[in-house]
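Run log, item B.
One chain of 282 residues. Sequence copied directly from the ordering sheet:
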Amino acid sequence: MAEDYVPPEVWTWKREGQTGFRGNRPIAGATHEHELPRGKHPFQLYSLGSPNGQKVSIMFEELLAAGYSEAEYDAWLISIMDGDQFGSGFVSVNPNSKIPALLDLSGPEPVRVFESAAILLHLAEKFGAFIPTDAKGRAECLSWLFWQMSNAPSMGGGFGHFYKMAPVKLEYAINRYAMEAKRIFDVADRHLAEHRYFTGDAYSIADIAVFTWFRYFQRANAYDGGSKFLGTPDYLNVARWIDEIDAREPVRRGLIVNLTGDDKVRERHSAADIDAVLTAQV
């Protein structure tokens, strides 16, 4: 058995083998010069088809389906495995070097928005859609929206890292985050036993934010076996809610934007790009 790790008095960074993904580092800023592309539409989305990235593409597709033609967007793939998030252009939009990032060109001057919840809220307020207008409903919606944001690091960077990516499997770490992931699912399952959506009867940005992560854990066999390990399909109220949202056409469209497979929409410049993929899947 390996000796217990004793933290030094002052932590120092070892460039290889210490923090997992080779792109991780304890400093911010750009590593190389790279100008971001821009399309012709009012919104430029720089992202990846991960649960955090899918939130925003679903939101755009929901807005377009609801008749907000001004919500047309260009989506550009940011390959985090290739370090695109450390390019100077991306860092200028998101100094935190995480996807998704949005450049809103619809006004007199460009507006940058980063963090998925901030982008969802920005778009909901800009178009007056998918967010309750009454004080009580708005508070409920924002509470669940930020509940999701607070929990994503536990489900992804916590459970996902130690269950799948860590070079050494640590029982304590896996148990710690498995317990938290299941607790999060139980919170949602109890709430959805009494409510159609997270804010009651109205579908909102809170549902969009929670959906992408929960769908990944319940339907996509998270982290190659994580779904079975956690028993996430057993949360039946969550399953009912996922089924309903999964059946929405804008959601189906948003889920395939900026995935890395050749049969997905890597750069979306018009609705026809998504139509072609969906037609091929029928």
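Observations after the first pass:
- The radius of gyration is 20 Å.
- Residues 104 and 162 are 36 Å apart (CA to CA).
Flagged for discussion on Thursday.
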